[in-house]
Amino acid sequence: MVDAVIRESGIGTRGRALDVVFRAATFFFAILVLVILFGIVAALIDGALPALKQFGFAFIVDSSWDPVKQIFGAFPAIYGTLITSFIAMLIGIPLAFGIAIFITELCPPWLKRPIGTLIELLAAIPSIIYGIWGLFVLAPMLQSHVQPFLVETLGAIPLIGFLFEGAPLGVGMLTAGIILSIMVLPFITSVMRDVFETVPTVLKESAYGIGATTFEVVWNIVLPYTRTGVIGGVMLGLGRALGETMAVTFVIGNSHQFMTSLLAPGTTISATLANEFSEADTPIYLSVMFALGLILSVITLLVLAAAKFMLSRMERQGGS
Amino acid sequence: MKAKTILLLGALTASLGFIGAGAQAQNLSGAGGTAIYPVLSKWAEEYKKATGVAVNYQAIGSGGGIAQIKAKTVDFANSDKPLTPDELAAAGLVQFPQVVISITPVVNVEGVKPGELVLDGPTLADIFLGKITDWDDEAIKKLNPKVKLPKAKITTVHRSDGSGTTFNFTDYLGKVSPEWKQKVGSDTSVSWPTGVGGKGNAGVAQYVNQVKGAIGYVEYAYVIENKMVYTKMVNQAGNTIEPTMAAFQAAASNADFTKVKDFYLILTNQPGDKSWPITAATYMLMRKDYPADKNQAVLKFLDWALKKGQKQAEALAYVPMPDAVVKQIEDAWAVNFVTDGKPIWPVAMK
Questions:
Q1: Which residue, A94, A182, B69, B71, has most beta carbons within 10 Å?
Q2: Does this model's pTM top 0.80?
Q3: Which of B110, B180, B211, B285 would best serve as a mutation to test chain A binding (most A beta carbons within 10 A)?
Q4: Subunit contact A278:B60, Cβ cutoff 8 A
């Protein structure tokens, strides 16, 4: 009996000690993430400094890229990054929205699971496979069927014509945007589907009860109720699109020439890094690579910050 | 609890022992250009069979290879762009050619079969400058009076990644076109006036095969592999040359390494009636300050590759170094690698 008590108290002490260790360990892990994050940012800034000093602010708006004369400007890469992601969002969001609504609101139960699983499988395909598929299958198809049509129709419209001019190459910013839209689809769709499912049935049923159509229920009940989550899903997809490297490198045409046409070859920050980091053989060239990395990080940060800001503003509006 | 600890310790010791064993067997590590990779991996395979020494080579690009040998992380490096004697001296490196590669223009023009189209240097330069924009341009017609050229736009395809292939191709264009030299210059990547970029030789090959009206440049091995439509070229002597092993050999045999320091020689636009105009030596880089036994192990492998590896090289459309050049290279080893006043080469072979 006495023995048992002693043993018990022993376990208790050990348990408390363990608790302290446990707390310290988890705290350490949490701090570690911050340290790594700041370490990466510090390394990026340190590496980028020589380039930023030499080229100054002009680095962001300049579109020359001449490794022979060692003159570099990041504008085409920044432009390409933003434009391809924008195209991806333009195509991806409506598609994802439609799929998520279909699965949660309209789909017959036996079809729900197969469609959901298949969409999620899209996320499991490695990005290099998307790149290969884009180059071998999608690009030739766009070149022979879609792009000539775009040049003839949209290219002839005065205000937006400049976006669709030039020879149809198959590869280019539009192709990269289309590939990206497929790649971000599973991310946006699964988040949207999850948040749509959180809408209380009673809300929807009352709406149907007063004679609302399915469209009205989606537009006036489901969407307002879930908008935070929907935007979160969109941002998740945008984050992926901004940073995607391999698939884009395959199909974007990798040209540092700045061109307004979406059919023209371009480049993105991550594609430039993938292409040129290994052969950046002068200090300033290497520093330019770091500066590009820093810019990409800043862009991603701004996107996240904008998302947070929008969400908090919407929440306040919703509350009032 | 105790049992677990013992198991863990056991596993740890075992893994340590494993690492130790790995370090004992002399393995060589190298890094550098992708151009030499196909033949180097073949050599490594055969060399391992013959001697038991494994050679690990990372094809990360010439620039990456140079950076790694400077940082002392690899035993040897490879570059398709030779370093200047000053750069070598500053970094304590030794450089010598290992094998000759050849670069061939490839096209995708409707109705044109392999070897049908003839181009010369100035025309090629004008195409890549964006001055000649259509396949039925007078300059191309003049070189190809018998070929029916379609009325189609030209799309130029270049390497998007930094590359020794690009360095040698642009060097050639600079030699045959003053305008190219002045406007663009030559380097592992340049400011291309026009066109699209594909990643690696494979990426360029893919773009050319896919984009109608395209012209690009790839290593000859990729022409065979991808069944591409190559062009003939007019060489320095004014002869129209088909890209063949004999034409590459003719260019390589005209390379005179005796007059230059550190083998710094760019092999484009070589003289000779039968020389293919765009060839390049790919270079090995080694450190002077590595321990003698490590450098000896690398030299043994490279010596084997220079002599016994010629067959593998030729099978993959590389041109081996002529015997006279091999002798020059090995003489240079004896001069450059000296430990305690004694040359480490030749090694007494067992």
A1: B69
A2: no
A3: B211
A4: yes
